[in-house]
Every structure is written in C-alpha cells, then in structure tokens.
Amino acid sequence: MAASCYGVSSVLGRSPVDTRGGLNQLLGASNFVLPIKRNLKFRVRSSAEQNDETKEPAVAPPTPTPIPPKPKVSTDFFDVLAFSGPGPERINGRLAMTGFVAAIAVELASGRDIFAQVQNGGFPWFIFTSALLSVASLVPLFSGQTPESKAGAVMTSDAELWNGRFAMLGLLALAITEYIKGGALVSL
C-alpha cells in the first residue's frame, strides 16, 4: 500500500505528509507519513523486448539484392515515334512553344494576326523550323538517350511536357480568339 500511495502522490504532485488535504484526507489519515525512497532505478523496456532467458540469437540482416540494370532504351523508329513513345508529344510540345513565342513576337512587331503571318510568307519558315526542331529532338532519342537522363533540378522532363501542353493550348486559343475577333490579339 505504501508503494501505491507513493505513486499516487507523485502523480498528484503533493507530498503524502501534506496536512492541507490531498492524499491524507483522501485516505482518512491524520498524521500519515510514508517512507520516501530515493535513488530509485527504473528500467524501461519496450513491449516487444523479451526476457534475457528467452532471447534468441541475433540474425544477420539479409544481404541486399543487387539492382538489375535498366533495360536498354529502344532506338527503333516505330518505338520512338509510337503513340506512347518519347517522341511525338515532346516534339509537338517543343514546336508549340516555339510557335507560340514566335506568333506573339511577330504580332507585337508587325501587328499581324497568326493567319496573316502564315499567308504572308510564314509558311516556309514554319516548315523549316518544324523540320529542324524535329530532327534535333529525334537525334538524341535514336542514339538511346532518354529525356529523363538530361533533366536537371529546374528543367525536368515533366516540366517540359507540361509547358509544351500549355503552349499547344495557348496556340490553339490564340488562333480561335483571333479568328473570332477578326484581327490580332496583341497590337501596339
């Protein structure tokens, strides 16, 4: 009982000899004095720890399995340009980014909308730029490099895909807006 009173008094934060109430009044004792043990040593165990007698010998950790090398990237023409291959969306995104910036720059410089730009000599530039960027995008893919292997901290391959997607939508929105408006969207 003394140990339980000591435990309760330590939880309550009062000494068991406190005559102002507390544990003495709770137990109904008037001058009840508990022996206080000092220098108690506690041993903390986890619930999963076993007794010393039943401990099993330590088992050596398993050896890590070697990571298999990454499969070789296919450089076949039809694999690179397949619908889900690395080429089509990346090339279209790069062309759209270049086209959107060029269309806005020419509108700011000359005041012509995107349709007037194509009709007034822009079509050969479009063909030349498309061919140049397509070849420049396909050469690394045919040599076995992946876009992810050249990605940095800021310029990731996913960021390039998302920027290309937004540029495709922006170029389409620019063409539709200028068609409905009947003139350049941006003019000086």
TrEMBL record:
GO cellular component: chloroplast thylakoid membrane
Segments of skewed composition (Pro residues): 59-69
InterPro entries: Chloroa_b-bind
Keywords carried by this UniProt record: Chloroplast, Membrane, Plastid, Thylakoid, Transmembrane, Transmembrane helix
Membrane topology, as annotated: Multi-pass membrane protein
Region annotation (Disordered) ranges: 45-69
Thylakoid found in the keyword field: yes
A Pfam family recorded for this sequence: Chloroa_b-bind
Principal place of residence: plastid
UniProt keyword annotation of Coiled coil present: no
Localization of this protein: Plastid, Chloroplast thylakoid membrane
Stretches that traverse the bilayer: 122-142, 162-180
Protein family: Belongs to the ELIP/psbS family.
Protein's name according to its UniProt entry: Early light-induced protein
Taxonomic lineage of the native organism: Eukaryota, Viridiplantae, Streptophyta, Embryophyta, Tracheophyta
